[in-house]
Amino acid sequence: MLVKVLHNGSCSKSNAVLEYLDENGVPFEIINITEDPLSILEIRTVLKKLNQIVFHIIRKTEKLYMDNFANKNFSEDEWIKILSENPSLIQRPILIKGSVAMLGRPIDNVKFFIEK
């Protein structure tokens, strides 16, 4: 089954997952979220497949987050809009296989996800 990878080319973890998939012959499609940001609907769909709330996929160590969003109380809808406008704040990589998704870290989780 084809694995979709929500990817940021400047992220070493994301690049490592692509390398792992390639080396293991796993068919995948790259969705570069910095070049082609996810829509609000796409983010909602990813969250549903992850079975997570939006706060789970926010990169809280990102400078943009620290400078502009840390310690602020936004609703789920507001966060989703913020992520759609600022894709660098989305944790990556996120792997999607059919109706399920997972955060692609650590790499051992990726191995388990691919084998299931």
Automatic annotation (TrEMBL):
<dbReference type="Pfam" id="PF03960">
    <property type="entry name" value="ArsC"/>
</dbReference>
<dbReference type="InterPro" id="IPR006660">
    <property type="entry name" value="Arsenate_reductase-like"/>
</dbReference>
<protein>
    <submittedName>
        <fullName>Arsenate reductase</fullName>
    </submittedName>
</protein>
<comment type="similarity">
    <text>Belongs to the ArsC family.</text>
</comment>
<dbReference type="InterPro" id="IPR036249">
    <property type="entry name" value="Thioredoxin-like_sf"/>
</dbReference>
